[in-house]
Amino acid sequence: xxxxxxxxxxxxxxxxxxxxxxxxxxxxxxxxxxxxxxxxxxxxxxxxxxxxxxxxxxxxxxxxxxxxxxxxxxxxxxxxxxxxxxxxxxxxxxxxxxxxxxxxxxxxxxxxxxxxxxxxxxxxxxxxxxxxxxxxxxxxxxxxxxxxxxxxxxxxxxxxxxxxxxxxxxxxxxxxxxxxxxxxxxxxxxxxxxxxxxxxxxxxxxxxxxxxxxxxxxxxxxxxxxxxxxxxxxxxxxxxxxxxxxxxxxxxx
Length: 253
Hints:
Blueprint: E1 4-8, E2 11-12, E3 15-16, H1 20-29, E4 34-39, H2 45-51, E5 56-59, H3 67-74, E6 79-82, H4 91-111, E7 119-123, H5 141-153, H6 155-169, E8 176-181, E9 184-185, E10 192-195, E11 204-205, H7 206-217, E12 226-231, E13 234-235, H8 236-246
Parallel strand pairs: 1-4, 1-6, 4-5, 6-7, 7-8, 8-12, 9-11
Antiparallel strand pairs: 2-3, 10-12, 10-13
Helix pairs in contact: 1-7, 3-4, 4-6
C-alpha cells in the first residue's frame, strides 16, 4: 500500500486556492504515494488533475468543517502536510481563522485519530516568534531590520502563526515537524538551501520549499524540530541530513 499523504493547500490572494507550495508538493509525491489534496471547491479539481491524475481531491472547508471531518480523512494516513495560510490578506479575522484556528483544528483532528496517528508537517514562516522578546542571537543588523518590517507589515499573520506554532510545540500525542521558510519566491528552484539558524534573506523559491517538504515526508527522525530554510548553496538532502543529525530546533519562542 502506498503511504497516504493528505495535503492542505495554502491560501492565495485572500481566497482559498490550491496553494502553490501544496500543489508542487502533491505533484512531487503523487508518483510514489497516495496523495489526498484537501480543497475548498470543485472548481480547483482540474488544476490538481493537470499536475497528476493520481492526486485525489477532497472538498472540505478548513474554516467551516468540524475537526471530525478531518479526522476521517487523516485516519490511515502516514503524514499530513499543512501549508494553509491567509498570507496576511482578508483581514485579521480571516487570518486568525485560517492561520491559528484552522491549524489548531487540524492538530485536534490528528489527535482524535484512533490507533496510529499520522505525522504532521506544518509550514510556518521564518522569524515567527514572540516579537516582544530580544532578537535571536544569530541575527545580524540586516536580519533585525527585516524582522521589524515583517512584524509591522504582517502583524496579524505573525501573531496567528506564532500562536499556532506555540500550540503545536506543546503537543505530544503525535509526531510533528515545522518548516519555517523565508520569503517565498516564484523563481525556478535550485535544489539548494541554507538550513538551521539562518539569516532572514535571501528568499527561497516555492519549488525548493516543496522539495524540502518532500524530503521531510520520509524523515520521521525530524520529529520535534522547527527548521528554518532560506535560499543557499547546500543540496536540500545534505542540508537536512546535517540539521537533523545536529538535532537543534530553530524554535526560539
